[in-house]
Input
Amino acid sequence: MRPNDNSEIFIDAIISQIQQHLTTVSGIYITTATYPPSVVPLPGIAKWTGYTIPPEGGAPPPVNEEEQPSSQDFEEATTFTPEEEAVTNFASEQGYSGMQATGIGLTIGKLIKSGKASLSNLSEMIKPAKRGSSDSKEPTPSVPGEKITECGDVKLPTPNAKLVEAMKLFGIDTPIRRAHFLAQCAHESGGFKWVREFASGKAYEGRSDLGNTQKGDGVKYKGRGYIQLTGRANYTKFKGSVSKDVVSEPILVEEDYVAQSAAWFWKINNFNSFSNDDSVETLKKVTKRVNGGYNGYEDRKKYFCGYWKKLQEDPTLYT
Output
C-alpha cells in the first residue's frame, strides 16, 4: 500500500486484509474424556477453519436467558399468608407506612405461623409509630359518597413504559385503579423522578421487625423504587416476583424495578379490593395505607384527579 496521510483509508485497508486473512486461518481442537470407560479413549480431534468479523454495527445483543419466576413463585411472592395479612393490617392501623407495615407483617406473621408468637399479643409487639401530628391528622371530614372533582393546579407527569408494564404484570387493570396507583407513585417519587430514599438508611439498622437482622442491613435495604421498598423482609419477598436477585444486589431495585416494586406492594396489599371508586373516603383509605397517615394528601388528590380525568376521557390510556 502506498503511504497516505488519510487514516481512514489506511484503517479500511487493514480491516479488509484482516477479514480476508481470518477466513483462511485453521486449527484443531483436542479433547480428552475425564471419565474413561474400560478402555482409555484416544484424544478427540476436531478441525476448524475460518474466523469471521460481524458486519458494521457489531454483534447482535446477547439473548436474555434469565429465568423468569414461575407462576407459582410469582403467586407466592405477591400473596400474604393469613397471619402476615393480619399483622400488616394491624401495623398499618398503628401508623406505620405501607412498606414498613408490609415488612412487619412478613416478619412477625412468620413468627405467628410458626407458633413463636401470637396474634393476641400484637399490641405488645407493635407499638404505635412515631409520627408528627400533621402527618397523622385526617383531612377535613367529607360527606359520605362525596366525589373528588376539583383537580387544582398540578403538572401531571406521563407514566413511563416501566409503569405501564408493571401495571399489566401485577393486575392493576381498570382505569380507576390505575388512577389511584399512579397518583400515589407520582407523589411518593416526586413525579417519577426519585428512585431512592434520601436518608442513608441507618435509621433502619437493627430493625428486626423489617427483617434487618444482619449488620449493615439498614443501609443495604434502604427505600428504593417509586413506593420505597424497605427492609430485608420486603426485598426477600419481592425477589420471588422478578428474575434478578435483589437481595444480593438491592441496587437493582432502583436500576431495574422502580415500578415493579411499587406494583408488587400494591398487589400484595390487595389495593385493588378497595381502590374502585373516586370518592374522598377511598382516596383517604388508599393514602393512609401507603403513607401510614395523610402526609401529602392534597398533592395526592391533585394527581389522582388529574389521572382520573384523563382516564375517563380515554380508558385505554397507560395500557
